[in-house]
Amino acid sequence: MPRMKRDAKTVYNWLERRLQIEGPVKDAALHKVPRSTASWWYVFGSAAFTLLLLQVVTGILLALVYSPTAANAWNSLNVLNHQIPLGWFIRALHGWGSNFMVAIVFIHMCQVFLFGAYKFPRELTWIVGVFLLLMTLGMAFTGQVLRFDQDAYWGLGIGVFMMSRVPLIGGALVHFLLGGPNISGATLSRFFTLHVFVIPGLLLSFAMVHVWMVLKLGINEWPMPGRLVRRETYIAIYNRLSHEDGIPFVPGAFWKDLIFSGAIVAAVAVCAMVFGPYGPGGMPNPSIIQTTPKPDFPFLWIFAILAYLPPALETPVILVAPILAIAGLLALPFVAGEGEKSWHRRPIAVLTVSFIAVAWGVFTHLGTYTPWSPHMNAWSSDAIPARYTHSATPLVREGAVVFQAKQCRNCHEIEGVGGQRGPALDDVATRMTPDEMRYKVVTGGGNMPAFGKNLSPAEVEALVAFLETLHPANERPAYDGALRETSTHNGSPPPVTGSK
Amino acid sequence: MVERSDSPHPASTGAEIGRAAEVASDLEGPRVVSRRWMLLKAGIALNGLIGIGLAIPIIRYLFSPIRPDSAYNSWVSLGTADSFPMGETRLISFTNPWRRPWDGQTVDIPCYVRRTGKRQFQVFAINCAHLGCPVRWFPQSQLFMCPCHGGVYYADGSRASGPPTRGLFTYPNKVVAGNLQIYAGQMPTLSNVPKPPESAKLVNIAAPTPEGDCPCRG
Amino acid sequence: MRLRSTVAGGLLSLALLAAGCGRLPVEQTERYVPPDQVTDFHALYNTNCRACHGPAGENGPAMDLANPEYQALVDDATLRRIISNGMPGTQMPAWAQSAGGMLTDAQVNAIIEGMRKEWSKPNPFQEATPPAYEQPSGADAKTQTADVKQGQQLYQAHCASCHSGHARQELTSPIYLALISDQALRSIIIAGRPDIGQPDWRHDNGQLSPQDVTSIVAYLSSLRTNTAISAPPVPLSSRR
């Protein structure tokens, strides 16, 4: 036993004599940090780095099988899912690791922002961090493309259609991104290169610089209200904090990093085990158009915003908003490089974070069920509740058939089933008189197409007859007061109007 | 003995070497030995030149997709014009004229053919003019609907509702010897609206994918 | 001690999970089947037919497919024709790819097969013989001339007891008739719609003869006067 110990020591010394790495490692591990930073709030950065390592490892494992050609990518993912033992688990780890990494990076940024850590002298750390965030999102998007299914194919389409709005060079940019005039094998190769070589290389080097600066400049101290940052005095204050009231980074603060990172990786593994891998969905055959493309979780909010933007604002927002947002993030440490760090005295910072978090949550939630999308199969698959037609007149029943056959259901719900693009029609008869319905159906308006050209007058009448029955049993349908006063032909079918 | 000499931090460590180097650099500063500095600059300049020389081919390689080759300006045959029923709109796929053997299923590009007269056709791109998602044709209501953000178009491709700012993209078409041909070398986007250049050689007429005698589907 | 047992329990459950996870979540996710390869009747029916014909072939606004009498009345070739090319004069669209729909011939056949399997019953008419599905043409037509006047009387005698008065009068309205074809009327008169209480051709007042059915349809057809409001359907001949 003692002999083995001595041998090990010999080997260690032999290596250390040549590597000379003990000193820097000891310096890094034992450097003193302010006691207040040994906190559970300071664990997100290290967790993000751990997730990055997990992604590298699982990514390499997937690359052993994945075939980065348009002809075979989808098949190789199915082989991973179904034929290679636990291939699905590695895919699931990589997919869930990606989700967790995006989430942790965002949380890390919020924490750093609220703790004022971007202020002097850590401006560059923040700026590098902004690029790390962008690269993380870039990895998430290129990763979705590599899962070469229908969502990936049409997601590429969405991406290049956004690029095509760039003035002057838009067309060239599209061809550059696609690697050709159309989405093809060349496109997948480009995104494979980005996802596997270009962005990870940059990401790892930037992460190293980021960590290096954290070590050199010290971990941001826990902000105290009223302790303002000034260029002249900050270093002295920080040194006093870390040396007089400091503890060595290892183990004082590091144990929390280790435990949290472990917990996060365990959470990734549990999610991977329980929920399994992402897709792949339908095969990347563009001629199969029965698909509802949707981006992955990190981009759902963008998908939602694009649905709500007024057409006139779309191009400016798509092109200018990201530039402004990134410029704002990069400018932050120069605009507010000094002064108050504590969130207790930075109400605008707190409000900004809360507002963005709530807005992001709302848009992501909307993106999960896309109320703006027509349901393509609603017209032929969502049944009319039997009680609406069971004892209805033949005309009303025929109107219900028209309602389905003319795809009204694709945008309008009945009893919570159907598209949500337009208003639900369960009680439409209480809101609109038959004349108003007729007018709306024929001329469209708002966000509704005009059906005048495509419905015969008889179809319109039957449809309106059906819609007239859509009201709660205890509530009278709407009626035209003026008409009732002047006319007595209430029982008879209304005159055909709006015909062409 | 071995152990001692391999101890991690022997006497002659970085600090001493560093001090020696400082002395040396004082002696060999730019003013003292300008020839070495000049050679260093020459070395940098040489590498810079070679770098620029290499950058030109690299950039050309990297940006090669931007320079259109003849396939970008292709007329593609969709089969005999009479295979399309009058007054109807049909989905059909054509083979991407710019293709590689490893493209797999992505070579099949769908489009909608609407026949409005004996020799009058409208050929719509599958891509919604908003963000490129595949629009679906509903012959019953004579509408195209997009599953992504709810863009809707009328039968003639004009915008009906939703976020698109324009109608569907149409591929220019012509009937040559009874064959319907479309100018469809590129994915249409807001900045690549298909428009055949005057000088375009009308070549590279690709055969449609063999799908039985009728090229139409769904 | 307690901590140690917790850790041991955790490790054990992890090990169990790891042992069982060779086929955990991914086996539940079905492999992608391209939409034109789906031949499961229920999947096809639920995607394409359910909205109008009802969740289980009945109680929908359109024809009651789960009615065994209707299943017995219509032969496979006719069903194939209707599903593939649609039913002119009604809202039933064409589903075959050759007619601009989304279904392959194999899928149309799968739907017919599935309907027969689910909803056909042996001998639904017992000893009675129903009138033919289609109005006879050619030689048989001579025995069944359409008589509008007689049709009106038959309508009053057999149909008006239910199809009259405020609630149900639209049966004779040109608007309703513009949306339903003679063949669809004929099918409903013969096979009935048990799901909504419409009797078949053998209703309470006695049995309708094939001649009667033809005449009633002819009468209703003659009411379809307002040709302006019924846009002519695209003739089959122009479809491919």
Can you offer a commentary on this structure?
- The complex is a heterotrimer of chains A (500), B (218) and C (240).
- Chain A is built from 22 helices and two strands.
- With 500 residues, chain A is mainly alpha-helical.
- Chain A folds into three domains: 1-28; 31-369, Cytochrome Bc1 Complex, Chain C; 378-486, Cytochrome Bc1 Complex, Chain D, domain 2 (Orthogonal Bundle), CATH 1.10.760.10.
- In chain A, strands 1-2 form a two-stranded antiparallel sheet.
- In chain A, helix 6 (123-146) packs antiparallel against helix 9 (185-217).
- Residues 487-500 of chain A have low confidence and may be disordered.
- With 218 residues, chain B is of the alpha+beta class.
- Chain B contains three helices and twelve strands.
- Chain B has helices at residues 2-5, 14-27, 34-62, and strands at 75-80, 89-95, 108-115, 121-125, 136-138, 143-145, 152-154, 159-161, 170-171, 173-176, 179-183, 216-217.
- The longest helix of chain B is centred in the N-terminal third of the chain and has 29 residues, at 34-62.
- The radius of gyration of chain B is 32 Å and the shape is elongated.
- Chain B starts with a helix and ends with a strand.
- Residues 1-5, 8-14 and 201-218 of chain B have low confidence and may be disordered.
- Chain C folds into two domains: 34-128, Cytochrome Bc1 Complex, Chain D, domain 2 (Orthogonal Bundle), CATH 1.10.760; 143-230, Cytochrome c-like domain (Cytochrome Bc1 Complex, Chain D, domain 2), CATH 1.10.760.10.
- In chain C, 45% of the residues lie in helices and 2% in strands.
- Chain C has helices at residues 2-20, 41-48, 50-53, 68-73, 76-85, 105-119, 148-159, 165-168, 174-178, 182-191, 210-223, and strands spanning 202-203, 206-207.
- In chain C, a hairpin with a 2-residue loop joins strand 1 and strand 2.
- The chains are: A mainly alpha (500), B alpha+beta (218), C mainly alpha (240).
Characterize the main sheet of chain A: 2 strands, antiparallel
Task: Tell me, briefly, the overall form of chain B.
Answer: elongated
Annotation field: number of helices of chain A: 22
Structural class per helix/strand content of chain B? alpha+beta
Strand order of the largest sheet of chain B: 9-4-3-2-12
- What distance lies between the first and last C-alpha atoms of chain B, to the nearest angstrom? 86 Å
How many distinct beta strands of chain A? 2
Give the name of the CATH architecture of the largest domain in chain B: Single Sheet
CATH topology of the largest domain in chain B: N-terminal domain of TfIIb
The CATH C-level name of the largest domain in chain B is Mainly Beta
**Largest interface, by Cβ-Cβ below 8 angstroms: which chains and how many residues each?**
A-B, 77 and 66 residues
Beta-strand segment tally of chain B: 12
CATH structural fold name of the largest domain in chain A: Cytochrome Bc1 Complex, Chain C
Order of helices and strands of chain A: HHEHHHHHHHHEHHHHHHHHHHHH
Measured distance between first and last alpha carbons of chain A = 100 Å
Strands of the widest sheet of chain A, in order across it, are 1-2
Determine the strand fraction of chain A and express it as a percent band.
under 5%
Mean pLDDT of chain B: 81
